[in-house]
Amino acid sequence: MLKNKILAVENLSISFFNKKEEKEIIHNISYHLNENEILGIVGESGSGKSVSTLAILGLLPKNISKITNGSILYKNEDLTKLDEKGFQKIRGKKISIIFQEPMSSLNPSMTCGKQVLEIVLQHTNLTKTEAKAQVITLFEQVKLPIPETTYHKYPHEISGGQMQRVMIAMAIACEPEILIADEPTTALDVTVQKDIILLLKELQAKNKMSILFITHDLSLISEIAHRVLVMYQGNIVEQGSIEQIFKNPENNYTKALISSRPSLNTRLKILPTIQDYLQGTTSTEVITAEERQKHHEAIYSKPPLLEVINLEKEYFTTSGWFNKTEGFKAVNDVSFKLYEGETLGLVGESGCGKSTLGKAILQLDKATAGSILYKGVDITKISTQEMRVLRKDIQIIFQDPYASLNPRLTIGNAILEPMKVHNLYNTYTERKEKALEILHRVGLNADAFNRYPHAFSGGQRQRVGIARTIALQPKLIICDESVSALDISVQAQVLNLLNELKADFGFTYIFISHDLAVVKYMADQLLVMNAGKIEELADADVIYNNPKKEYTKKLIHAIPKGL
Q: I need a labelling partner for 14 at 20 to 30 A (CA). Which of 147, 218, 295, 297 fits?
């Protein structure tokens, strides 16, 4: 690998400001990117990794931020001195970027092909016919299925992984020398994530590009990068080779990032968080095989809390010349039992039917066939009034806490509202007292009661979602991708909290996720779904150590495992 620097960030400081104050959020950072190299930038939300890289392309928000010190040298040209016209010559042509969320980055009113065509026509002298042929070739390069068909499709007509491939095609359309990949796989299934990582490595090797790969997942970085730098609170706390950072991390924050992700080999009683490492209070206590077996003997000796029997959910679409109605089974003949105090892990790729199954159990989307027995009663046959009463017992924690909270309601009112609906406690004072107690229980201060959702971080909002759920003292909680959008260390905090609450209140969980490492840590039994059917159902450790089906093996193989 050549060691010539193509990009050098030197003593860079960035401040954000309003009418009242100015605050520095990037503090004098320095690093370089070599030619033909993949450099990983790792850190949690708010560490400054995205802001510092947006500065490279002059994409910082104009009226609230500024570079206060330092330089960004691209082939000895200082990018901090460029005006908008100067950046237009570089963006897309010399330095390109892939954003985290393709759905919000692509124009929903334009076909995928036309969006990439625009870039090619803007930066080359090709005719429209030649440019279209190049777009088709790019779609082939990024391994999109049937490139000619995808060219004419709109973003909503293709999957998340395919949208990300369109974004990559757009980014490499003009063969840039530097590609910035900002969390390009965060929202993707573990198998699709692996495909995108392999694709980027392949394109990098073929085109001799340099890549800045930004993520909050150190294990993922180990799969793609040559070197890595770790950011924390606007500073670079450590940088070096992948081997050096993983085998001999020097900074406590780096050690915490590596250890906060659940191990696939040992099951700690409490996952270490960033604060634990920084305060030196990490626990190494593990759940032994004997303890796990004893717990299982206790919960499986009782009758099941929930029994799903031959459940089906079919959707119908009308299409074709003669308006022919076609059926699609999102859940197909699914049966399993769930016991009080158990955590059932439910895994599979997007579209496998796991969320549909969760909604059917909640009666939010009624099943087409089959039975759902809750405490021996078939809840598919009960009245609306009976279901309203039952909603107190069966609750859900959603993936996106911000979307599930009313932005006009204070956090206190969001927790009080369901209490009032279900006639819990006699007076407002009693309910408020209980709400404050619950907020404290999930690690939030009393002042959170009068604040609105926008005033909290993603991890704090997820705690609010959990507080709102447990306020009703449910028996069964469905956690639908409830930690997938969180940073590794915040994820560790929330997983610890869910386990604590389970121990204290005797909750039973259905834990839905596409992240097998997290599910294996949390689950007693593991249910693997594929195309609406159950592939495997057994003890989580048994399935991980000895998967029987090829699909399960593929899921396990795709987990980023670090070094």
A: 218
Task: Select from 73, 62, 185, 163 the least CA-distant residue to 111.
Answer: 163
Q: Is 47 helix (H, G, I), strand (E, B) or coil?
A: coil
Arithmetic mean of pLDDT, 174-183: 91
Largest CA distance in the chain: 74
Residues 6+ apart with CB under 8 A from 341: 295, 298, 299, 502, 506, 507, 508
Q: Which residues of 404-434 are buried (b: 16+ CB within 10 A; e: fewer)?
A: bbeeeebbbebbbebbeebebbeeeeebbeb
Token pair of 473 as six digits: 């003292």
C-beta separation of 82 from 90 below 8 A: yes
Q: Which amino acid is at 156?
A: H
Please give the Cα distance from 526 to 518 (Å, whole number): 12
**Dist. CA 396–CA 4, nearest whole Å:** 53
210-239 confidence digits (pLDDT tens): 999 998 887 888 889 999 999 999 999 999
pLDDT of 187: 65
Burial class (CB in 10 A: 0-12, 13-18, 19+), 206: exposed
For residues 239 and 31, is the Cβ–Cβ distance under 8 A? yes
Predicted TM-score (pTM) of the model is 0.82
Q: What is the DSSP string of 496-552?
A: HHHHHHHHHH--EEEEEES-HHHHHHH-SEEEEEETTEEEEEEEHHHHHHS--SHHH
Report the 10 Å Cβ neighbour count for 32.
17
Structural element, H or E, at residue 396: strand 394-397
- Enter the tokens of residue 434: 């209980």
Q: Rounded to an integer, what distance in angstroms lies between the CA atom of residue 53 and that of residue 106?
A: 20
